[in-house]
Amino acid sequence: MVTRVATVAFEGIEARAVDVQVQIIPGAVHFNVVGLPDKAVGESRERVRGALIASGLAMPAKRITVNLAPADLPKEGS
Predict the structure, then answer these.
(1) DSSP at 62
(2) How many CB atoms lie within 10 A of CB 71?
(3) What is the CATH number of domain 2-69?
(4) How confident is the model over 28-68, as pLDDT tens digits?
(5) CB atoms closer than 10 angstroms to residue 75
(6) Are 66 and 3 within 8 A, CB to CB?
(7) What pTM did the predictor assign?
(8) Which pLDDT does position 1 carry in this prediction?
(9) What is the residue-wise DSSP string for 15-27?
(10) Closest listed residue to residue 52, CA positions, set 28, 69, 34, 31
């Protein structure tokens, strides 16, 4: 299953399109963020986990990959 969301990353004063693709597949439990994220973006795993728990939901026991495209554009912030 792949879900996509369109957002932007700022490069100076210009906004560049970023496509966020999330894939959930069977496999070892893992949450991975790829696509040149900075430290704050990489730490979003814990924020997502916390938000799900606060909502009364659980992380699926599957492999979750979040791809931030384009991969050559650095992504910053939360």
Answers:
(1) S
(2) 11
(3) 3.30.230.10
(4) 988 888 888 788 877 888 888 899 899 999 888 999 999 99
(5) 21
(6) no
(7) 0.82
(8) 66
(9) EEEEEEEEEEESS
(10) 31
